[in-house]
Amino acid sequence: MVLKAFFPTCCVSADSGLLVGRWVPEQSSAVVLAVLHFPFIPIQVKQLLAQVRQASQVGVAVLGTWCHCRQEPEESLGRFLESLGAVFPHEPWLRLCRERRGTFWSCEATRRQAPTAPGAPGEDQVMLIFYDQRQVLLSQLHLPTVLSDRQAGATTASTGGLAAVFDTVARSEVLFRSDRFDEGPVRLSHWQSEGVEASILAELAKRASGPICLLLASLLSLVSAVSACRVFKLWPLSFLGSKLSTCEQLRHRLEQLTLICSTRKAENPAQLMRKANTVASVLLDVALGLMLLSWLHGRSRIGHLADALVPVADHVAEELQHLLQWLMGAPAGLKMNRALDQVLGRFFLYHIHLWISYIHLMSPFVEHILWHVGLSACLGLTVALSLLSDIIALLTFHIYCFYVYGARLYCLKIHGLSSLWRLFRGKKWNVLRQRVDSCSYDLDQLFIGTLLFTILLFLLPTTALYYLVFTLLRLLVVAVQGLIHLLVDLINSLPLYSLGLRLCRPYRLAAGVKFRVLQHEAGRPLRLLMQINPLPYSRVVHTYRLPSCGCHPKHSWGALCRKLFFGELIYPWRQRGDKQD
Amino acid sequence: MEDERSFSDICGGRLALQRRYYSPSCREFCLSCPRLSLRSLTAVTCTVWLVAYGLFTLCENSMILSAAIFITLLGLLGYLHFVKIDQETLLIIDSLGIQMTSSYASGKESTTFIEMGKVKDIVINEAIYMQKVIYYLCILLKDPVEPHGISQVVPVFQSAKPRLDCLIEVYRSCQEILAHQKATSTSP
């Protein structure tokens, strides 16, 4: 196999010295981590390498020599470099040499032992691959998901290939801690040798985060203790708490904040990203909420809103009345059963009358309520949107009631019709065996049954029309609430930190690598530049999306249509009990 | 060593294949697709603007004209950045892997690299495409679970769609490198 030498781009202009790195025999590749300069004492070099090996669990060793001839090539240096091969035994021994002011390199790899296969050359062909050490160190390789589905035991696949190079560089961080200003026994050249990278802000933030996290964690534990107390488990409050989406959203936010403020360090990069994404999401939410708050409270918009709310509710009630009057007449030219029509129409009209009186009773308090509700926006835009969704649900409660009445009536009618249809044909539903069996009825049973069947059949169009109209209204309200929930879900689950990282520091999230062939001359070894191939945005969102409340409709379209046809009540959102992460 | 030859794709358009032999273990094939023709661009723009002008005479709303200009510009930019591929490159490096790059007309490049350990073979497959039977070159990937199975088929030169003669050239070169790689990897 061709021998691959991974050489860091920061060491291209370094002085002559020894190559320190790791040899991966399965891929026949040598990963060079640093260059050790002359003068050095071999014992100290071996001690340093043993220390690094113990601290990082990476098999670091001296791989060969690096020769950068700035002046005239010296003969003594050449012989000196050859003798080093005896001091630091390594198979194979690399000799990289860069000419004075030349862009072309020469590489040789020799094996001291005689090759076992006859005819194989004593010297291997070498391919040079340059890599940016800082980028490879900081980046995180995301293997394609196909691989992770298939295997549980084939772990060698994941550490094979280029993942081994990334792994080696990432784990050898302890080697890069010394720079050229340190007074150590050996002088190394690597990406941090010009000075260790650090940021004052990051250090201050790290120091400050400890006590702040403790304070916030104690506050949050107090809040969760209050919310878990016995009062809230009693029937009216627990029922409300499970139905209102605001409580759901507040609970979700509380969980997220507890996660952020916990004093345990993140164990792996995925948890760290999750914490960072949660922080970014909470900050965006609060910022948008404060913007909404300032917009609402400026120029007395709340007053305008409150003044407009009661007339709008009145208008909606009036439109419903017109609709019912239309249904009580001859809607769309259909002929309804007069008596049933009048009964149902009057019943619903009385309901609307009650609703209008209720709204008028509430109208002096609307402005105060809205003002206090507007304050909740400082907890976040998602809370304000959930409150809006709950207010819409409360204001259209009469539509919900009408839908339930219409649906129950229609459902009863359909069940009655199907059972009497079976009687008409001489059959019966066997509850024990859950199937339709034949049954011999008496004459009077058949007579009454057929009579009732006819009555129900001829009253069906009226009930069906009322059911249709109110179901459509209810679906409209559900659609509006669904849109609001979709927006809340989007803000909750979008991984902003990961997207920002992909935009500003694309090398941190790597989907793979890409190679570019550098200037090539015949007879010289092949030189390639390895660059990081960043993760596409769709995969970033898919990998790092935060778990949301899980309020998605659980029916498929077919099941929904079936439920609508049979008059079963539809609940578009999952209840608290079957939430899934 | 570099040479260039002219081939044609399945629709009859002209393709240019550039071959570069860097070393016995590294070869690059670069297929250049036909450029965006001025004739089709003018035709599409004129159609869109005629339709917009027709709607304008019906509705008397000048927003339609500015919307048409906006849509044309955005559509052209989107087409150049996301759809129109100028060049497709296949770089095969012995014992490292195979890299496929597509460069779009706006300069964007999208690269995929497959490691040599995952490559089972490179073959030419037949496919039924609308009313034609076409040949395409594809890379077969190994299945980690089953040693003789294939987990994925990755087609190469998907937007250039060259004909069989071009594919045979590329296939022969790739097979030389794969054979060399298999021979050296089985030896200890």
Automatic annotation (TrEMBL), chain A:
What parts of the sequence cross the membrane? 278-296, 343-361, 373-405, 446-469, 475-499
> InterPro entries per the record?
PigQ/GPI1 (IPR007720)
Q: Does the keyword Lipid metabolism apply?
A: no
User: Pfam families under this entry?
Assistant: Gpi1
Keywords, in A-Z order: Membrane, Transmembrane, Transmembrane helix
Q: Which GO terms describe its cellular component?
A: endoplasmic reticulum; membrane
Gene Ontology biological process terms, A to Z: GPI anchor biosynthetic process
Matching PANTHER family:
PHOSPHATIDYLINOSITOL N-ACETYLGLUCOSAMINYLTRANSFERASE SUBUNIT Q, PHOSPHATIDYLINOSITOL N-ACETYLGLUCOSAMINYLTRANSFERASE SUBUNIT Q-RELATED
Could you identify this protein by its name? Phosphatidylinositol glycan anchor biosynthesis class Q
Record lineage: Eukaryota, Metazoa, Chordata, Craniata, Vertebrata
Automatic annotation (TrEMBL), chain B:
Q: Would you kindly state one Gene Ontology biological process term found in this protein's UniProt entry?
A: GPI anchor biosynthetic process
All residue ranges annotated as the Phosphatidylinositol N-acetylglucosaminyltransferase subunit H conserved domain in the record? 89-158
Q: Which Pfam families match?
A: PIG-H
Has the keyword Ribosomal protein been applied to this entry? no
Q: InterPro entries per the record? A: PIG-H, PIGH-H_dom
Of the GO CC terms on this record, one is:
glycosylphosphatidylinositol-N-acetylglucosaminyltransferase (GPI-GnT) complex
User: Where, by residue number, does the polypeptide cross the bilayer?
Assistant: 36-56, 62-82
Write out the pathway annotation from the protein's UniProt entry.
Glycolipid biosynthesis; glycosylphosphatidylinositol-anchor biosynthesis
Say which domain of life the source belongs to: Eukaryota
Keywords from the UniProt entry: Membrane, Transmembrane, Transmembrane helix
Q: Which family does it belong to?
A: Belongs to the PIGH family.
**What is the recorded name of this protein?**
Phosphatidylinositol glycan anchor biosynthesis class H
Q: Which organism is it from?
A: Gorilla gorilla gorilla
